[in-house]
Amino acid sequence: MTFRIFIALILLPLLGQSQLVTSNAQGPAGLVQNVLLGPGVTVSNINYAGSASAIGSFSGNTNLGLTSGIVMTTGTTVNNGQGPHGPNAQSNAGMDNGTPGSFLLSQQIGGAQTFNATTLEFDFVPYSDTVRFRYVFGSEEYPEYAPPNNTGFNDIFGFFISGPGITGLQNIAKLPGGGGVVAINNVNAITNAAYFVNNGDGNTSPQNGNPFYIQYDGFTKVLEAVAKVQCGKIYHLILSVADVGDGILDSGIFLEANSLSSKTPVDITSTLSQYISATDETLMAEGCVSATIDLERGTNNISTALTIPITVSGTASEGVDFSDIPTSVTFNAGQTSISFSFDAFADALPEGTETIRLEFMLTDPCGNETPVVIDLKIQDVLPVGVTINTPMVMCPGESITLTATPSGGAPPYTYLWSTGATTPSITVAPGASQTFTVQVTDNCLLETATASTTITVPVLQPMTLTLSNDIIEICPYIDRTITAQASGGNLNFTYSWFNEDGSALAGNVTSVTVSPSESTFYVVAAQDQCGNQTVDTIFYTVTSPPLTLTMSPPIEICPGDSAFISVTAQGGYGQYYYNWPTIGATQAGVWVHPGETTNYQVIVFDECQTFTVNGSVTVTVVKPTADFEILSTILFDDLPIQFGNTSVNASTYEWYFGDGNVSTNVHPSNIYDTPGDYFVTLIAMDDKGCLDTIIKPIRIFEAYFVYVPNTFTPDGIRGNEVFSASFYGVRRAEVKIYNRWGEMVFESDDLNFAWDGTYKDIMVPDGIFSWRITYVTNFGLEEKISGHVGVLR
């Protein structure tokens, strides 16, 4: 027993985390019969509805809590980044596979529409009073659509059982202890959090880059669906999952392999003392491995002795290939467990793989005899051997991996390299040719095999560069081709060219065409496939100095004036040539007469004629803008009229008011003696003497006024006996007076009218009367005014 525990500890690292792997190789019937089905249950009439890629088998030691079984999704089981496979790299994984929803599931959520349903259903017969299986439900709906963000998009699933003793369809996907159905809104980080695994949001969580974490952002812990049944009766089970509200953000259910079971009266398991295969746990090696068979029964009828017959068959021969196996085992009264062991013999015969089948005949709770079968295999153990790969080395110091591949014997193997390493593979980087040796010892025959390999490292010649000659030119911008050719090293050269400032010029070419503006140099670096590098320089000398221009400074002129602009050339080679393209001039200096601000371009080249240099001079046409406004609102003769100066870019002003008066004030005023129409002129001047003029008309009116009192007392005592108005500058007037009922009581067109307060020769009563006066001034302006006058006696 101690030896088996030691072997398990050795193998523990081999059974660590592994990525989720799925397969669609088996159809739905094969998945139920070969993957889901466990002891104590038989199945029939298997049917499936949904996308063919939405169901498959899974395996892998991930964070799911289940290592193998069936996976059913609302999208895909294909490893395309949208299914359940890790890592959890996005928060909205899933695909709409376009299949219909489930009427049964829609009924469970009040008739909401479902999509992409995956439904597996079958009949089964249990051979005890209970059926059970283990599962995990996961979804990309977590956490965005889980509480507190309750929505109508929460995907749904259910396990519905029907049959004898069960009313209708019962959903057995429930939490233990009456915790309700398993659903996104009932199992999450807030509700029933003890059953929930937060797998991150697919964006920033640490597990997002870990391939051993599945894609779904959240899932339940491993749960068990359990139903009470009647032994030997036929039941129907429907397993279904669907999207709700839309066809995106997938969900899936994982059903544990061999967990659809109905407890048998005796559990029988086998354990090997040493596992010589990572993929076949039934394989024994001759002379090295023993098998232990453990039988455990429940407490029902424990007070009664129980004998179980054992039938041994297969291609291996008892007493020749393995030790004796009992023909039966007996549980004594009160005894719950029994075990026995047997060994695989080393018979030194090349027999290939032989088989052993042990059949334990059990009577199930239904009274049926049901055999429990354990199959084992015995493999020949060949002499231990080992080989080492011999990688080709192209460069000294190149990193290579040497792997020892053992054969024969039985694992686990131990390794000892000439470097002192004890791993199956080593990574080395020899700088010169070297021989490496490994010794491998197996754990069965305890034989040691040795192998060697010599790694040949080439001896490389130093790298050199052959360059084209340095270049000397009088003129700049002359195209010349420079070349470089590397030799030595390990061939397969790559080239890099750089300018004087270190910027890249060209890559991986042996020649480059250059045309610099002045003296410079170019650097070329060559590197072979081993990383060896050599660098050299080519100089390009331009003997003529750079051609530079000195332009006349910017000029400001008044409109209509002329300006002289020029360019002075220095450097270059030989005679200079000029071109002012906008004015067609070919000399260094020209007179220009722009009507508006203008930038004049000049092109200069020398006798090299390999390039041109451009210059420019701006001639700005400047002038003030004259403008003003009349600020006074009463334009009468003999009254001051105020003018507001709104000119721009001016410094001095001349005003001509049209009546012979002038002013140089910024904001002047003027008094006109005679009414009439006048023209006001403003001349604005800037500090360069540039002028601008504006003329605006002004009409001066003769002064006039009208005075109307608001009360008179026609009592013959106090002197204010009549109502009349005073007019100045008015040549005609008409007055009308009305009582409170709108009846006209007085009318006159006399400037000197006087109302004595009577109407039809009868004195009007005291009160307020309205008046309206229409008058025309001496210069023809007609106006209407109105008001009230009080009669008071």
Tell me about this structure.
- The protein is mostly beta strands and 793 residues long.
- The chain is built from 3 helices and 58 strands.
- The strands form 15 sheets. Strands 1, 3, 4, 6, 9, 10, 11 and 13 form an 8-stranded antiparallel sheet that branches. The protein has a 5-stranded antiparallel sheet with strand order 2-5-12-7-8.
- The chain starts with a helix and ends with a strand.
Task: Record the SSE blueprint.
Elements: H1 2-11, E1 21-23, H2 28-36, E2 41-49, E3 55-59, E4 68-73, H3 103-108, E5 114-126, E6 130-139, E7 156-163, E8 166-171, E9 196-198, E10 218-220, E11 223-228, E12 235-244, E13 251-256, E14 266-272, E15 283-285, E16 290-297, E17 306-313, E18 328-331, E19 337-343, E20 354-363, E21 369-379, E22 385-388, E23 400-407, E24 414-417, E25 425-428, E26 434-441, E27 448-455, E28 461-467, E29 471-473, E30 480-489, E31 494-498, E32 504-507, E33 511-514, E34 520-527, E35 533-542, E36 548-551, E37 555-557, E38 563-570, E39 577-579, E40 589-592, E41 598-605, E42 613-621, E43 628-630, E44 640-645, E45 652-656, E46 662-663, E47 669-671, E48 676-685, E49 691-700, E50 705-707, E51 711-712, E52 726-728, E53 730-738, E54 744-748, E55 758-759, E56 762-763, E57 767-777, E58 782-791
Parallel strand pairs: 15-21, 29-35, 37-42, 51-58
Antiparallel strand pairs: 1-3, 2-5, 3-4, 4-13, 5-12, 6-10, 6-11, 6-13, 7-8, 7-12, 9-10, 14-16, 16-19, 17-18, 17-20, 20-21, 22-23, 23-25, 24-26, 26-27, 28-30, 30-33, 31-32, 31-34, 34-35, 36-38, 38-40, 39-41, 41-42, 43-44, 44-47, 45-46, 45-48, 48-49, 50-52, 53-54, 53-57, 55-56, 57-58
